[in-house]
Amino acid sequence: MPVDVRKESLAALSDYASIPIAFSTSTVLEVEWIANGLGGVRMVDAPLDQPLSKDFDDDEPVAGWHSLGDISHWGFFAAFIDGQRVGGAVVAHKTPGVHMLEGREDLAVLWDVRVHPSVRRRGVGTRLLDRAIHCARTSGYSFLKVESQNTNPAACRFYANHGFALGGVRRGVYAEYPSEVQLLWYLDL
Asked: Stretch 35-56: mean pLDDT, rounded?
């Protein structure tokens, strides 16, 4: 199953948004602070009483990204199998209003990555991530950052397995989801 990853323009954003980003999980990563954080953090898989489903497009739809500032220079990528769109990734950079960029000139952010449910766990995400890393590296960035949550253990394992290091664990970031913990991952390019 060859995956073709292509760079796209901002004009293809509505096509990009057609790929679902929703997921379901039966576990979460419980964050345990060792010695109140002085001894580090341990994350343990914990089963849920009921599966959790989440759709990031409900909270931050693709169509709303324009409100962040000038995103026309961001890197937009799409994955295709046999000519059918099956995924996408976005690399954000040089956008002052985007707090995830921390005001840094050496940092790019993997703003979004999505793979159609019918082809998940078949290498599409890896191909998209490889392209995003290449984009950030060849654009002169030193680090690529991505955000996940403890409610998405599969994404956390994906980033860790691709060399990202956990660089931030933040409780209380999401007012609408008070039990979720923000996890920030960094890749040294």
From this structure: 95
| pTM for the full predicted model | 0.95
pLDDT digits (tens, 9 = 90+) for 144-158: 999 999 999 999 999
Own/partner pairs, 130-137, CB within 8 angstroms, 24+ separation:
130/5, 131/5, 131/77, 131/89, 132/75, 132/77, 132/89, 132/90, 132/91, 133/187, 133/189, 135/75, 135/77, 135/91, 135/108, 136/75, 136/91, 136/93, 136/108, 136/189, 137/189
- E-strand spans in 57-164? 75-81, 84-92, 107-115, 143-149
Average pLDDT of the residues in 8-36? 96
